[in-house]
Amino acid sequence: MTGKRLLLVADTLDGGLGAAVRAQATWFERDGWAVQVFDHVPERARDGLAMVRAAAALRHVARRFDAGVTHCHGLRSFVVARLVTSPAPFVTLHGSGPVPSDPPLNDATRRAGRRIVPRLAAGAFTATPDGQRAWRFLPHASPRLAGLREVPIPDGPPTFLWLGRLAEPKRPDVFVRAMAAIADTGARGLVVGDGPLRAEVEALVRSLGAPVDMLGERDDVAGLIAGSWAVGLFSTHEALSFAVQEAMWSGRAAVVSDRPGLRWLAGRDGFVVPDADAAAPAFRTLTDPEVARARGAASARSLRAILRPDDPWPAVASEYERRSHR
Fold first, then answer.
1. Fewer CB under 10 Å: which end of the chain, C or N?
2. pLDDT 10s digits, 16-54
């Protein structure tokens, strides 16, 4: 393919999705592509006026940039791009699972979209191994993996880490309740991140007397992982969590909710649990330093066997090339 020009469309450049979009842009630029990123898709598809405005703005960008390939991240981004770009865009679906506070119609609409979109796209990828028909599963590696190494479990009290946005789908309350349940072991929890639920989570920590420190936003992820014994994440909506990948790559076991992506990552050597009542005994098991070391080392080996630091971009580039010759 000559004159390689790639337009990426997303609703945000924050969080894990934003990290994936930025990683794709960086990889393809290094591979000789010109890349343009459009990230003005509204957060809610039911905001019709905002969707129309986003489509108009994207039409202007697409005409000026004249991309050979458009790649959308998320269903809303695909809807906007499909209206105004040609040829048909590629799409990647990140995460799966319900958002508890959403009305039932929202989840039904998302399910319908997952069935329809692959028929309208140049190619449909999913970052979650949930067996959806017509979607090709491509594991997405955290951009930080290449700079991480396996590090030993530190001395001192058992320390467990939670990394993520303090928002409803991430369920930080499960981590806090689990830490409160094992307070008698001398373990402590570290909550790293910020978001709309911060005040609520801080209130829960106080009410339970949970041994949890709220650290807010931090950039020193490698140092935080190095100071921990294991990581926890209990999302209801998740793909292949970058935070869990980074912890496992560094030699930390993970205690996670039973979502397909988290189970694919951590289910071999970590703990897959349904709720806080089950998370607490998993963390209690990991307060034994020998167990934490053994589980962490096994987690690092198993992740390296299924994931490479540059996944999935070589496979995506090959798909672009293949489709261009059809």
1. C
2. 889 999 999 999 999 999 999 999 998 776 678 899 999
Q: What is the token pair recorded at 36?
A: 């343009």
Asked if 116 and 34 sit in the same domain, the reply is: yes
pLDDT per position as a tens digit, 218-237: 989 999 999 999 999 999 88
Closest CA relative to residue 256, chosen from 274, 288, 233: 233
Q: 292 with 182, same domain?
A: yes
Q: Report which DSSP code applies to 267.
A: T
As a residue count, the chain comes to: 326
The answer to whether residues 111 and 161 belong to one domain is: no
Provide the CA 134 distance to its chain's centre, in angstroms. Answer: 21
d(CA 281, CA 269): 15
- 309: how many CB neighbours lie within 10 A of its CB? 16
| 157 and 125 Cβ atoms separated by less than 8 Å | no
User: Number of folded domains in the chain?
Assistant: 2
Count of CA atoms in the C-beta half-sphere (13 A) of 320: 23
Question: Exposed, middle or buried: residue 113 (CB in 10 Å: 0-12, 13-18, 19+)?
Answer: middle
